[in-house]
Each structure stands twice: as structure tokens, then as C-alpha cells.
Amino acid sequence: MRDLATVYRNFDQETLDREYNARDTVPELDPFIGEYARLSAEARENLDCHLDISFGLGVEETLDIFPAGQKSSVFVFIHGGYWRMLSKKESSFMASNFVSQGVATVAVNYTLRPHATLDEIVAEVRRCIAWLYQNGSDYGVDPNRIYVGGSSAGGHLTGVVVADGWQEEFGVPADVVKGGVMLSGLMDMEPVQLCFVNDWLNADKAMAARNSPQNFIPENGCPLVISYGGLETNEFKRQSEDFATAWRAKGGSADCFETSHCHHFDIPLELCQPESVLAAKVFDMIRQTA
To answer: How far apart are CA 151 and CA 155, in angstroms?
Structure first.
């Protein structure tokens, strides 16, 4: 007999698992992963780029930089994949669009589960931002104009670098990130830790809490652009809306909106389209704060 016990909010286990099962919201996942990879390969072939640059001691701690002239703003993209799949090789699909707008692009690689804990993954992406701040000028990047974005788990990892409380340890200023872009981000890790995702994430309650961006919102934080697909589950939508509300309550600016025609896996591709509402809002944020 089905267990109807409440696990989180008003959800039983089956319902909570369904809310966080983005894969089941599309008939096939491979076409979207293939598009990420195709467009990223085109960027590496057609744009000036510096590939496989190490930013840490771990073998997976590498990044690709696509310059856009000297002392340019830079958009750092952190891929999703529920912390266990994808890489930077599928994560520079927006580079052509951003470089054409004078914004350098960085695609980040990090160690995946089960080879790193969530704590270690979070430390890696923070180390990447610190490395870029300290070394990006060698590649034409203005260290005072760093913007970070990501989708799904990458939205979560964007959240942990715009969050408060880590910068001093990594030797960077509190405002090292000048703006964030979260697409379908997982900002409160409590329900993630309670659903099927934890089968591979293997986080306990304390680990989920200390890696929840929702718990570390700074006063007067950097501007954010937050979006989610209209075809996503309600929990992905709620996570974005709740984080935007909490960010604004602390004095930060958060432009949060639904991209109605998109689902969980095609919303990142809106960053490739110069005429898309999402890309336009991101470029506006960069211009207004650069």
C-alpha cells in the first residue's frame, strides 16, 4: 500500500520525488544534451579560446575561457546535471552570443558525484571564482566585472557564490560577483535531501543546510536575474520565486520571471538567442552594473 505520510510541506514521498524529477517532464533528454554539446563545440571551433585551464589541484577543476577583448566583463556558466553529470564540454553554448556582446565567457568543470561530496563541489566552484578574480586579467577579463550563472544544479552553485560568508576564506572581496543568473535553481536543499536525488547526493540534513543559498543571503546582495520554465514542476518554480522574495527582503534586486514556452532543459538555450527576453535581461544587468 502506498505510503501517504507527509515528507515535506504537504508532499508524500512519491509526490516529492515527482516534483524534483525534471527528467520525466520531457519525452527525451538526449536531444537537449546534444544541442548543448553541438553549440559548445562550435564555440570552441569558431571563437578565440583558452581551453582546459586548471584553477585548482583536482584533475576536474578546469575551465575554458572565451575572451571578448581586454578588460571585458565575464559571464561564468556553471552546468547542471544534478551534481552527477555533464561537464564544461557541454557548457559554452552561449559563448558566441555573449562574446558578440563584448562579454567574455567561462565554462566551468567540477568534480561530480560520487567522486566529490556536495561540500567539495561547492568549494570547487568558489575556488574557480577566486582563481578568476586573481588571474582573469591574464586572459583579458576584468576581475571587477565577474557575473555568474547556471541552470538547475548549476543554479544552486551560482547561489553558493552569490551567497554570504565564504569570500574571506578564499581571499576575495565580499562583492567579487557583480551579478547572478539562476535558471531553475535549487536554492533550498532541504527537499532535495529528502527526495530521490539524495540516493546519489548522499547529503545529511546538516550538509543540505550549510549548502543552501537560501540560508546565506547577504545584505544588499548583487543584482539577480532568475527564471524558470513554464513547463516545469511547481517545486522548481517555487524555489525560484521564494529565493527572489528572500533576496529582495534583504535589500537585493531580483528580477524573477517565468519563461512560459520553456521546460527545464531548453531554458538554458535561451541564453544563445540575442532576441530572447532572458538574454536581454542578462545583458541589461551586465551593462547597468559594469
So the answer is: 4
Per the structure block, which three cell numbers stand in for 230?
Answer: 513554464
Q: Are 111 and 79 in contact (CB under 8 A)?
A: no
CA distance 267 to 151: 8
Where residue 165 falls (left for φ over 0; alpha for ψ -120 to 50; beta otherwise) is left
Give the number of other Cβ atoms within 10 Å of residue 169's Cβ.
Answer: 10
For residue range 222-259, what is the model confidence (pLDDT) as tens digits? 999 999 999 999 999 999 999 999 999 999 999 999 99
Q: Strands of 62-66's sheet, edge to edge? A: 50-54, 62-66, 103-108, 72-78, 141-151, 177-183, 224-229, 254-259
Contact 217, 224 (CB under 8 A): no
Task: Let me know if domain 16-289 sits in CATH 2.60.40.730.
Answer: no
Question: Per the structure block, which three cell numbers stand in for 235?
Answer: 517545486
Question: In the chain, where are the structural domains located?
Answer: 16-289
Backbone angles phi, psi at 172, to 5 degrees: -130, 160
What's the start-to-end Cα distance of the chain, in Å? 58
What is the greatest pairwise CA distance in the chain?
64
pTM of the model: 0.97
